[in-house]
Design goal:
The protein has 2 domains: 3-174, Acetylglutamate kinase-like (Carbamate kinase, 3-Layer(aba) Sandwich); 257-399, VC0802-like, CATH 3.30.2130.10. With 405 residues, the chain is of the alpha/beta class. 35% of the residues lie in helices and 26% in strands. The chain binds aspartic acid (ASP) and magnesium ion. Aspartic acid (ASP) binds next to helix 7.
Length: 405
Amino acid sequence: MALIVQKYGGTSVADCRHIENVAERVIAGKRQGDNVVVVLSAMSGETNRLIDLAEQIHTRPDPRELDVLLSTGEQVTISLMAMALKKRGFGARSFLGSQITIETDTAHGKARIMNIATEELKKTITRGHIPVIAGFQGITPEGDITTLGRGGSDTTAVAVATALDADVCEIYTDVDGIYTTDPNICPSARKIDRISYEEMMEMASLGAKVLEIRSVEYAMRYEIPLHVRSSFTDSLGSYVVKEDEIMEQTLVSGVPYSTNEARITISKVPDRPGIATKIFSPISEANIVVDMIIQNTRASDLTDMTFTVSQADYEQAMEIVKGVASEIGAERVAGDPDIAKVSIVGVGMRNHSGVASKMFDILAGHGINILMISTSEIKISCIIQRKYTELAVRALHEGFGLSDQ
Ligand code: ASP
Ligand code: MG
């Protein structure tokens, strides 16, 4: 008898009809003899609706009260789901984070799970009943409600799976798995059968939206297999597993991309100790995440610095940098909000040389200029002009043999 944690995203519980469908699916699992634990998101669009309400009261709502508000979305779906299961003659019980308890730190809006008490859950399971758990929420030791950050129900599901030592954590969504790239811009994108945790982490951080990155990190740490699949079909989706459980070795597994990028260049900065911290400290104090940073040497004691931030942070970052630039005597600050990042990811890169040059070659062959490059052990990213995103993604997908398998 297996223990399966099933997490259903917002589109899978979008209304009562969908909730009834999910109930049928949960019951099918029970009938097979497995123990099922359900974790739910709010109905699709609900969390956004709640944020909008809060912003009608205040442009920057109080974080504690915002979490009280946002946690209500999941309270709606878990209660309805428990009703739907009971209606079908199955024992079920809904649980808020505070009822389990799912203990978190105090970082409202981006709380981290510290501990999950399993007693009540285990009792419910032993009775043959189905726990239906609110994703995305927890409670601090002081009793304040917290949320885990957007998409956080994935993390709840993986953390619950870990705490209960589940056999697998199934993430149900509206697509049938993890794709080599976005099928919307690359028609030859394929569903991946198996991908390693590490590759999935890179894919998620480089723009693939199907899994929240923290949940993958968690699953990797505790070696919980993830199965990403559709709640609208019965076909198998994609497994995220340990690298040594993957037989088929490919050089490149995926081509993620992100158009949510902007670039800022500070030219003719004095090249001496302390300059980088003068530039980047105020940026990090403003909670702006800097992605790539490049420093070029000039044939003088001046240097140029270029870095990227997300679109949302671009204007604020520009303002900060302009302030710092005059302070440190830099000549010019230039910004470019029309860029994109295309990447290739694959554990096969570790043992192969020439992958980067092949990537550059493919882009050059399509007349695409590379503006910035960054690499890690299993990924290479290039910043390009945004208008070439589709072309670059398709060319790389094709060029690395992902289109014809
Ligand atoms: N409802 C929350 C959100 O939209 C959590 C989740 O769906 O994972 O971010
Ligand atoms: Mg979600």
